[in-house]
Specification:
It is a single chain. The protein is α/β, with parallel strands linked by helices. Helices cover 35% and strands 21% of the residues. Helix 11 crosses helix 12. The two termini are 19 Å apart. The structure holds N-(iminomethyl)-L-glutamic acid (NIG) and fe (iii) ion (FE).
Amino acid sequence: MSSLLVDNIGELVTNGAGEGPLGIRRDAAVLVEEGRVVWVGPPAYAPAADRRLDAGGAAVLPGFVDSHAHLVFAGDRAAEFAARMAGQPYTGGGIRTTVGATRAATDNELRATVRRLRGEALRQGTTTMEIKSGYGLTVADEARSLRIAAESSTETTFLGAHVVPAEYADRPDDYVSLVCGPMLAAATPYAKWVDVFCERGAFDVDHARAILACGQAAGLGVRIHANQLGPGAGVRLGVELDAASVDHCTHLSDADVDALAGTAHSDGSGTRTVATLLPGAEFSTRSPYPDARRLLDAGVTVALATDCNPGSSYTSSMPFCVALAVREMRMTPAEAVWAATAGGARALRRDDIGVLTPGARADLVVLDAPSYLHLAYRPGVPLIRQVMRNGVTP
Ligand code: NIG
Ligand code: FE
């Protein structure tokens, strides 16, 4: 059994025992065996190892957990972005443009895009990435989207209910029946989660409830896109259905915040619905950012994710999202880094990632910086010196 000691770490973010909310340890070492962390402590007490990686006094943190991304698509919508920057609003209507391009693409074209974006994210420190379908919207196109997604991630999400496709525009009930019936059956072998875009112009709360309940009955975990473009009952529906995460949360009422806060247990135990904030979407649609402080102050568990997609947020960069969260959403750097690592893990109901404590997967990032603070302090700078996934450099 080969072991590796990551040594000479100036600042280790464990998200476990240690200083402050990030469980920081200074001057630390991490022993990795068989893809897992088996020991964390001061270098002077480190057990013998077969190999050694010298972090050179730099900061080391858990790999980012990006719990919300739409990578299976074809084409781009740069012109739509340019029009928005010239004053056009974002409505989500452009999703249908991407659906057309995705249906016309070959498997290998879709596969190449997923791999390119997954690789891009990995180089920016993302060691776990959720991938949704949602640009196929036929039984065959949703199934192949998920089959291709599953080649790159175990965290795959069936989003057949992204929008009602044009051919069903005047009979949305029929589309919901298709999603709950043959589409779900074709998707389930490749999907872990079910998701719905619950928003005006997409699916209302009754349709969303029906689709999520079918997915749940088929054994999928629940997540939901809710309250992105306006207020609505989506967030409360997510909490009611014990969703792992409600995503966007840009337009929240006090009742929404109370519902999210009510699911959290202060001792960290129990089932939680996480609020996943996607500041890349507000950046790229020039919209007001979600009120992260209100959620955090109410005790809600917050995650950060990219929402990587060709319409509302074409970034694969978790460091960029951390910087936005700090500068634009008043999260402290520690809160933002926690949300991008341990928070993302909670949003995927995982306890083996997002932390660097004994037993966790050895998914980590060595920064080209002495502290995690630099992720927000030096925005746009490639600070990811090295990435390790399952104890190996991918
Ligand atoms: O999360 N909101 C719905 N879905 C995506 C946008 C997809 C698109 O515009 O293509 C999102 O922002
Ligand atoms: Fe999304």
